[in-house]
Amino acid sequence: MRWDIFGGVFEYLFLLVVFGAYLFMFIWIVYDLFRDRTLGGWAKAVWLVFLVFVPFLTALVYLIARGAGMADRARARPEQAPEYSDEYVRSVSFANPAAEIAKAKTLLDQGILSAGEFDALKAKALGKKF
């Protein structure tokens, strides 16, 4: 009777691991489907329908048919990340140091900034340490 309890626990843990692996596979395939720009919307929809209703067979067919492309897309993603982040940083950063210095000079001429504050803003716009 004691071994029967342990058998149930091991069976439960095995099913939990299998379900976790299936869930990971399902999420990874859906992520790959939507990352792929070569597939049209209808093709993606068909893959998703089959993945929901015939999950294990569809996942196996997907890995066989599109596994190489999956690996290529996964490898290309980190290579593209610096381009996107650098472009984003450029788009949200200050227009240019000259424009920032001109604004600060206008504020200095109006008496809003002191000479020390102007120098600090100028150094900041030029990227210099104080």
UniProtKB/TrEMBL annotation:
The chain crosses the membrane at residues 12-34, 46-65. GO terms for cellular component: plasma membrane. It is found in: Cell membrane. Its main location: membrane. Keywords: Cell membrane, Membrane, Transmembrane, Transmembrane helix. This is Cardiolipin synthase N-terminal domain-containing protein. It is a multi-pass membrane protein. InterPro entries: CLS_N. It comes from Conyzicola nivalis. Residues 26-66 form the Cardiolipin synthase N-terminal domain. It comes from the Bacteria.
